[in-house]
């Protein structure tokens, strides 16, 4: 199959260190890094207003924990290369991409509203969080597309 980026075909689910060399699983670590950065940056500023920024915190914490658990399951071989796991991988990453997109839009809007009245350090931190949120969105979106290709080839 010419669509694979690693050592195993797109129609199989890797385990162990194979998740570090195959697409779409190679995206787990960057998703954790950028999602964790969003979580840290938003938590380090004032979560005001609480409603939209509470959603951003929920998305970043939920996706970080779920992606970490997903990584552990795949690395430990708990998925047993079944088609059900390929579908679940596609569905989870699609949902995470949608969640991060909505959180990124909320965060960008709130950051834009606070432009004039925020401390410059907090404003720059919020801008960094917006950028990392959209990078996380992109990573989850790419993972979703590659998971759909893998599911189709399963």
TrEMBL record:
One GO cellular component term noted in the UniProt record for this chain: membrane
Biological process (GO), any one: myelination
Protein keywords: Membrane, Transmembrane, Transmembrane helix
GO MF term (any one): structural constituent of myelin sheath
Keyword flag Glycoprotein: no
Domain MARVEL: 19-152
Entry-linked InterPro entries: MAL, Marvel, MARVEL-CKLF_proteins
Pfam families in the cross-refs: MARVEL
Membrane topology listed for this record: Multi-pass membrane protein
Coiled-coil segments on the chain, per record: none
Spans traversing the lipid bilayer: 26-43, 55-78, 90-113, 125-149
Localization: Membrane
Principal localisation: membrane
Source organism superkingdom: Eukaryota
Keyword tRNA processing appears in the UniProt entry: no
Listed name of the protein: Mal, T cell differentiation protein b
């Amino acid at each position: 199959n010419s669509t694979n980026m690693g050592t195993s075909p797109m129609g199989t689910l890797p385990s162990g260190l194979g998740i570090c060399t195959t697409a779409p699983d190679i995206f787990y670590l960057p998703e954790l890094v950028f999602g964790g950065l969003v979580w840290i940056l938003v938590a380090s500023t004032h979560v005001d207003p609480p409603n939209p920024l509470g959603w951003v915190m929920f998305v970043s914490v939920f996706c970080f924990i779920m992606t970490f658990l997903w990584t552990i399951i795949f690395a430990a071989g708990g998925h047993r290369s079944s088609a059900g796991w390929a579908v679940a991988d596609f569905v989870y990453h699609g949902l995470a991409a949608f969640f991060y997109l909505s959180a990124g839009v909320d965060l960008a809007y709130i950051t834009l509203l606070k432009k004039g009245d925020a401390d410059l350090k907090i404003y720059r931190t919020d801008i960094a969080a917006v950028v990392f949120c959209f990078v996380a969105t992109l990573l989850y979106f790419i993972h979703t597309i590659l998971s759909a290709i893998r599911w189709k080839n399963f």
